[in-house]
Amino acid sequence: MTSECSRRMTDSGNPPDDAEVAAWVGKAAYRYWKRTVEWIDQLYPNVFSPEWLFGGKKHGWSLRYKKSKSFCTLIPEKGCFLLLIVFGAKERAAVDAIRNELSAGARKAYDEATTYHDGKWLLLNVDNERALADVERLLAAKRKPRPA
Question: Over the chain, what HEC string results?
Answer without folding.
Answer: CCHHHCCECCCCCCCCCHHHHHHHHCHHHHHHHHHHHHHHHHHCCCCCCCEEEECHHHHCEEEEEECCCEEEEEEEECCEEEEEEEECHHHHHHHHHHHHHCCHHHHHHHHHCCEECCEEEEEEECCCHHHHHHHHHHHHHHCCCCCC
